[in-house]
Amino acid sequence: MTKTNEPGKGYKEREHLYRLIISQLFYDGHQTLAVSLSNLTKTQPPCPPSDRLFKLVSLGIRTELGKLV
Predict the structure, then answer these.
(1) At how many degrees (to 10) do helices 31-41 and 11-27 cross?
(2) CA neighbor of 38 nearest in space, from 24, 52, 51, 28
(3) Confidence tier at 1 by pLDDT (50, 70, 90)
(4) Which of 15, 36, 42, 69 is the most exposed place for a label (fewest CB within 10 A)?
(5) 46 — pLDDT class (breaks 50, 70, 90)
(6) Short-list 13, 22, 30, 18, CA closest to 50
(7) Record's InterPro entries (predicted)?
(8) Rounded distance between C-alpha atoms, residue 64 and residue 49, angstroms
(9) Measured distance CA(40)–CA(3) in Å, rounded
C-alpha cells in the first residue's frame, strides 16, 4: 500500500484538484475564500469560475452507487 502524502506523490493530481476547488468556489460565489486559497496555493495562471468539480463529483457518486445515467 502506498502512502498518498509522500513527497512528490500525486503532485500534479493535487495541483489539479486545488485548481478545481478554487474554480468551484468562484463559481459558487465564494470569491473571498477562492482568492485566499488561490494565494495560499500560488496557482498560476488564475483559475476561472467553473462547476466542473461538481460535475465530476456527481458523476463519481452516481457511478459508485451503480446509477450511471
Answers:
(1) 160
(2) 24
(3) very low
(4) 69
(5) very high
(6) 22
(7) CSTF1_dimer (IPR032028), CSTF1_dimer_sf (IPR038184)
(8) 27
(9) 24
- State how far the Cα of 24 lies from the Cα of 32, in Å rounded to an integer: 13
Q: Which grid cell is 66?
A: 451503480
The whole-number pLDDT of residue 45 equals 95
Q: Could you identify the residue written with the cell 483559475?
A: 47
Grid coordinates given for 58: 456527481
Residues 47, 28: contact at Cβ < 8 Å?
A: no
Distance separating the N- and C-terminal Cα atoms of the chain: 33
